[in-house]
Specification:
The structure holds two protein chains of two kinds. Chain A is mainly alpha-helical. In chain A, 83% of the residues lie in helices and 0% in strands. Chain A contains six helices and no strands. Chain B has a domain of 171 residues: Rossmann fold. In chain B, the strands form two sheets. Chain B has a six-stranded mixed β-sheet, sandwiched between helices. In chain B, helix 3 packs across helix 4 and helix 4 crosses helix 6. At the A-B interface, helix 2 of A face helix 7, helix 8 and helix 9 of B.
Amino acid sequence: MLRHLDEELKQLHKDILRMAVFAQESIFKSIESLKNRDRYLAQEVIDTDNQIDELELSIDEKCIDLIALYQPMAKDLRYITTGMKINAELERIADIAVDISQKSLELMGKALLKPLVDIPKLSQVAQNMVRDAIDAFVKKDTQLARQVVLADAEADRLRNLVQDELVNEYLARDPKTADRAVALLLIARYLERICDHTTNIAEDVIYMVEAKVVKHHPEELS
Amino acid sequence: MADIKVSNLNLWYSDFQALINVNAHFAQKQITAMIGPSGCGKSTLLRVFNRMNDLIEGVRVGGKVIIDAENILSEKTDLVSLRKKVGMVFQRPNPFPLSIYENIAFGQRVHAENPVKFKLDEVVQDSLKSVLLWDELKDKLNKSALTLSLEQKQRLCIARLLAVKPDILLMDEPCSTLDPQATSRIEELMRELKNNYTIIIVTHNMQQAARVSDETGFMLLGELVEFGRTQDIFTSPKDKRTEDYITGRYG
């Protein structure tokens, strides 16, 4: 029998997916704005953030209402509480995309420090991780969620690579490059943070489906 | 369709004041739940709306209850037509000891001037369909209603009300004798019906009030303490007494 709660959960699911689409678009646009020095795209990311914040609040409110009104149990309860956490992670990801866009705008007024090589690679890893984490959430695919968690190591590796290059090749050698080098360093750091938030989403999905806590328990991953 | 506007309603059972200055608006096309501990006045309030309290000796009522621009507390109110307009479902389903068909047809026979057989058939069919009993019972219409399960009896009682085309449905603990599955099916039925009726439900079961209603009123010692959107009452009640009751701290 289809319960009234099921209809509410369907609506909640749609809202969380809308949130995911917003977050994915924000990352994509912020990185494109950096690569193509596109002021318009960067501004678009910044302007959309209000809408994302509003959606975050309404999803939170919806989750609290569902808990209060339906007293959900077991998988329903795990779905709603996980939904709340994923909602918060997606909002943070969108905020970080705003940070990237602001750095991108900052860099647009200055000469190019170096061709971007590893940052686009890192951004691709981040975008793939977000896509897979959302897919895992939609399909309740914990295998995919586990892959997302494991992919975070590659993000850390690329971030370190970018950091080493910027510090050793630019900051240490020529202080005049500091403002641009630090901006790029921060962008790499932001992208790596996106991957961390995405890892949280994947861990939440595993909890939602299997009721198994893998957060802070890497041995539970296998 | 009709809504109910209650203003300055007071009710005494002899010396005991059971309702104290109640003011509320029960909107149409939605379910309003009344919650509160035993003896708080919620059933008394419900029974004001179809003047059922008139049957109790020593009852005095003051204030106004407006339905369709008419103060139903007025002496001039025609009680037969009021109770046709405002139907009531009770805690224990109470079908008449008649056939399923005659249970539904009963109201038509009382209210209609000259009920014609084919029209009665239509009313019986429509009413049973509205409560999702038609498919189960269409071949057993002549069987006694007393042979039905509790849930079917309660549905039948709702169908019996719908047959006389009321505007308002009052439900006094309509699921308290039913198991959780039957309860959940009656709740679904209520959600379907709310598109066409004003529904007020009195319930001890707070979870039910939360699940099923659009607005909720909390009563305590004859007073309507708080009235508002159900999600607001259950997530952020304004009155400490409401909060204490819904969090189980009352008393």
